[in-house]
Amino acid sequence: QLLHILISTAAVWVFLKHAPFQRTIKILFIFGYFMLFEYTLISRNYALGVLFLFLACSMYETRRERFVLFSLFLALTCNTHAIFFVISCSLMFVTLIEVGLRDGLSFKANLITGTLIFAVGSLLAIAQMIPPSDTGFFEGINTISLYDRITKSVVGFFKGIVVLPKLNTIHFWNTNLLISYNGALAGVLAAFSLFIPYFLFF
User: Fold this and answer.
1) Closest Cα to residue 155, out of 172, 171, 177, 179?
2) Non-local CB neighbours of 66 within 8 Å, separated by 6+ positions
3) Helices (H), 31-145
4) Residue 25 contacts residue 16 (beta carbons within 8 Å)
């Protein structure tokens, strides 16, 4: 727990030092549900992923000059959690596309080294994610219909954007007040929530 609070504190320090947001937004973020509760009070591997991701983002402005270190932080991010694997691969993919469009096919030493570091980190992460043959973790997945899988994915994304846990129960973990109040309305809002990133980042 002591190590975890140090990791979380380091992530908050990197965020406060480098995030290009107003002070109010920074304070709201670090004292929000995810940073304060899920990534700090609960000792899990999320905090390590957040720290490495924030470190990579902190050098995004100078990613061309410090591409090796940028790639190393993304490779470390890959090896913390499957969610961070997807995020770091997306960030690396976009960066490589950007470099390719801007510089053409001029393969510089730091670009090759950084890409190799990230590739090795990604392969190590994939090797760790492959479940052993005797695992029982995925037993129930084959019984879930495709419709239910899609619904759970959409609702999961909605719960991540609209964080309203049911605080009137002791087991509020992974709950949503709106979903429990009106499932149909939450389903419609969840479908619309999928388009929010497109409008924000257009």
Assistant:
1) 179
2) 59
3) 46-58, 67-78, 82-103, 109-129
4) no
